[in-house]
Structures are given as C-alpha cells and as structure tokens.
Design a protein that fits this description.
Blueprint (H helix, E strand, L loop, with lengths): L11 H11 L5 E3 L15 E2 L2 E2 L10 E2 L8 E3 L6 E5 L5 E2 L3 E2 L9 E9 L7 E7 L9 E6 L4 E5 L3 E5 L7 E7 L2 E9 L2 E9 L6 E2 L1 E3 L11 E10 L5 H14 L3
Antiparallel strand pairs: 1-19, 2-5, 3-4, 5-6, 6-19, 7-18, 8-17, 9-14, 9-19, 10-11, 10-18, 11-12, 12-13, 14-15, 15-16
Length: about 250
C-alpha cells in the first residue's frame, strides 16, 4: 500500500490496514510493545542493555555496554516504555551513514514521550542523530526550558509550545526540502505554521536515544515509548493516523 494512501471517513478497518502496511516501510521502528526486541518481555524495572529494531534492520539496533547507564523497562500495566534517569542513561546505535537512508533530506519522525525532569531552562535531548548544529542536524527531539516546551531540529529550527509533557504525548516532524515544507505536531495536531527546511549533510553518525551523546550530556528524564522514522514526508493526515494509533494503544 503506498504511503500516500488516504482514507475517506472513519473507516477503522482501512486505518488498521494502513497501519499494518505502513509501519514496515519505515527506516526504523522501536516498539517497546514487541518483547522480542529485548530477547523476551523483560520484568518491570529491568535495565535494558539492547533494544533491537522491530523489523530486524540491525544497523539501527540500540545498545548500552555500561550497566550503570541503561534505561529501565517499565511494564506500565501492559503499556510499556523505557524510563531514562536524566543522569547517564542513553542507548545508541553504531555509526549509520545517513546517505544510505536520507539522501533526499525528506523524513517523518514520530516519538511517544513524557518528561519528568526539572524546568531549569536547559535542553533535555530525547533523540539526536547526525550533526552538531542546525541546519546540518538531521533530527533532534528535545524538551526545552520547561515541561510545556519542546524543540525539534531538522534542517531548520522550530520550537513549539504544547500542554505539559508529564504524560505521554506524540511528538512528530514531517519535512522535505523547501519553503513551508516542515510541520511539527503534538498528538497528531499541527503546531504553528509550516516552516522552511534546509537540506542536511550526509555523514556517518551514531543515533542517541535519551541524551545528546554517550557522555553525560543533556540527559533526558522521563519515558520514551514508540519511535518511528520514515525517509519520506508523510502527509499531515498520515502523521495523525500513526500518532493516534500509538496513543490508542496506550489508552490515551
């Protein structure tokens, strides 16, 4: 089924079919509901040493060799997530060459997260891949300043304000290169006006989840659930469908 498939009306069967066909078309999908990604469903509070990509694309597998820097698996009444302590927890990939996946600089990223850290005016990075500064950075999703501000960097800055992030929210960016080609959304609802997006540099880099790097650097405090990324710009409607699917499975 093509990624530009659209549905007319509240057809739940069609939406379910779209989800089943579309998620495997992603570049990667980290799904804490999939126990096999951890070698079997962990017990509550288990430190996670490795988190494999949902569809076996091993270049994107996440890991952490240090036993003291591993996020904890939380069962959360059947709605699992990984809990990052804001001190030194981080998972990361080996270096991945973005040219193999994102040569066009088009992408869509959707992450479920909540933040429980301090409102201290500092950046707390939930994910960072490629590039130290914008606009060269391919993707960074962060909580900024307070619990009701977040920033997505992807070929051009944009900050969005939404409701308090103390409970799970779906944060997303859909972009291609050009004028007014980038939208960010919270819970599938577009925030602000479309933004300009620049091409990003292609290079090999690690992707970090839970911090800016493997050093103690801008650590995220809170929970991270589903995280999916495509190398095409999905429509805003498609982003809404996937975001609401993630929210629905969490009872939101």
């Amino acid at each position: 089924m093509p990624l530009n498939k659209m549905f007319i009306g509240p057809n739940q069967y069609a939406i379910d079919q779209y989800i089943a066909a579309t998620l495997p078309q992603s570049v990667f999908f980290f799904d804490p509901f999939n126990g096999a990604s951890f070698g079997g469903t962990p017990a509550d509070g288990t430190p996670i040493a490795s988190f494999t990509e949902r569809y076996g694309r091993t270049a994107w597998d996440l890991s952490q060799a240090s036993s003291t820097s591993r996020p904890l698996y939380k069962t959360n009444s059947g709605k699992p997530y990984l809990l990052y302590d804001g001190v030194d927890d981080v998972l990361f990939t080996a270096a991945v060459n973005s040219a193999s996946y994102f040569a066009s600089s088009a992408l869509t990223a959707i992450m479920m997260l909540f933040y429980t850290g301090p409102a201290d005016g500092n950046t707390k990075v939930a994910v960072k891949y490629l590039g130290a500064t914008d606009p060269s950075r391919l993707l960074s999703i962060s909580v900024i300043g307070t619990t009701n501000n977040f920033l997505i960097d992807s070929g051009g800055n944009q900050t969005s304000k939404s409701s308090v992030f103390s409970t799970f929210k779906s944060c997303s960016v859909a972009r291609s290169v050009g004028t007014s080609t980038k939208n960010i959304s919270v819970n599938g609802v577009i925030e602000g006006s479309p933004q300009n997006a620049s091409a990003v540099s292609t290079a090999s880099d690690n992707m970090y989840v839970g911090a800016y790097s493997n050093a103690v650097n801008l650590q995220f405090t809170g929970g991270i659930g589903e995280f999916i990324m495509f190398n095409t710009r999905l429509t805003d409607y498609q982003v809404n469908i996937i975001s609401r699917y993630f929210m629905q499975r969490r009872g939101l």
